[in-house]
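Weekly structure sync, notes
Attendees: PL (lead), two postdocs, one rotation student
Agenda item 3: pending single-chain targets
PL asked that the sequence for the first pending target be pasted directly into the notes so everyone works from the same version. It is reproduced below exactly as submitted, 119 residues in total.
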Amino acid sequence: QVQLVESGGGLVQAGGSPRLSCATSGLTFSNYAMGWFRQAPGKEREFVACISRSGGITYYAGAVKGRFTISRDNAVYLQMNSLKPEDTGVYYCAAGFLTSQHPAQYGYWGQGTQVTVSS
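Predicted structure, written out during the meeting:
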């Protein structure tokens, strides 16, 4: 079975710089673009960042541009810097065939990892 497993979340104080990781199994990792999305309570799931199959193309949501960095080697990562309380939410990694900001373009999703930013 295809599995995506996020790690690295938790309770972080404002200004912190955690790194999320997403490990995959059951798929050929290099064949997939990867994305990070997040969902706050009562809010729709929103795009955070994505990276192409080769890692050569990246896109970021305006809310995180300049603070977060997506990267990949044998896993995909989200380096988050200067965290704000509004960054709080469940962070999901996803795999798809297109490097897209739209959730519908991703066929596989992880279970999510909670990131809580405290003041």
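Discussion points:
- The CA atoms of residues 26 and 99 lie 20 Å apart.
- The chain has no helices and eleven strands.
Action: rotation student to compare against the earlier draft before next sync.
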